[in-house]
Amino acid sequence: MTRPENHPNRRRVLLIGNPDKPAVNQIMQDVEQIVARYARVVGRVLAHPTREVPGPPSDVIIVLGGDGMILSVVRALGDRQVPVVGVNLGKLGYLAEFGLNDLRDHIEQIIENPSPISEGMMLEVAVWREGREIFHSLAMNDSVVQSGPPYRMVELAVLADGQALTNVAGDGLIISTPVGSTAHNMAAGGPIVENGLDAVVVTPICPHSLAHRPLVLKSSQVIDVLAVRANDGTTVAIDGQISVPLRVGDRLSVRASEHRFKLVRHPGQSRWHTLVTKLKWGLRPEATA
User: Fold this and answer.
1) 30 counts as catalytic
2) From residue 158, how far is each of 105, 122, 249 by CA, in Å?
3) Computed over its alpha carbons, how large is the radius of gyration of the chain?
């Protein structure tokens, strides 16, 4: 075993924990002891990152929480993406593939050779009002237009690279990355897209039409959504975590970001393991007595 004091170039590891999770302080101490055998822990943070990741620069970030914390951290990293290790303290843990025992078993590989790494595209999302950009954000999962109260249908004009694509009347529209295709997009009937692909999924939410179906587009295309009809509570939601109002005449602009997230995958699991075991994809219904 190589002790940290003997490492000529010890990697810097930042621990970020969800302050809302029970016993997170004790878990963070345990993780620090596990990590300290192979790397230098440069900080321990209990926070929901927003605009930037708190703490000193690091080579690897270990997130203690669930998928929501990973989404927050990746967005907050912005143009300084580093490998992120998700330790699941939540329910599903689709992105957070590691448990504490998994982390203990694989920590040396995670720190010294953090592979396999799932790199994936993110979205650059902007809202324009009267010719002025009023909102800008990265999105790891999706950008969603939601009808909002008083919950009448909204109408959205959708353009791809400036060319008219369709008008959607219904409860809204989801623009998703491949990694986000198993989130809101899947629940709305959209396709599951392999994470490594560069593509954008456009999925209407409860469209008032039998002809509208989800659409997969090349990631090089810029998608603009014009609010033709909106409610007082119509919003654009980013990763289900932050939102901005969308008014009639506003334009939502979505394009692939030049920045790519880096998510450390479980080295002992296949790329389809989480899809099958946690989302039960392709499994037959279980018999009941």
Assistant:
1) no
2) 48, 20, 13
3) 20
Selection from 109, 103, 105 nearest residue 32 by Cα: 103
CA angle, corner 197, sides to 194 and 200, nearest 5? 95
Query: What CATH number does domain 4-116+265-277 carry, 3.40.50.10330, 3.90.1150.10, 3.30.230.70, 3.40.50.720?
Result: 3.40.50.10330
* The amino acid at 207: P
pLDDT tens readout for residues 11-57: 999 999 999 988 899 999 999 999 999 999 999 999 988 888 888 89
Structure tokens at 161: 């690279």
CA–CA dist 44, 29 (Å, integer) = 9
Number of C-beta neighbours around residue 197 at 10 A: 14
What pTM value is reported for the model? 0.91
Q: In the structure encoding, which two tokens stand for residue 282, read together?
A: 């392709």
The gap between the terminal CA atoms of the chain, to the nearest Å, is 52
DSSP secondary structure code for residue 220 in this structure? T
Q: Which of 59, 67, 142, 171 is catalytic?
A: 67
Q: Which CATH architecture has domain 123-258?
A: Sandwich (2.60)
Q: Where are the domains of the chain?
A: 4-116+265-277, 123-258
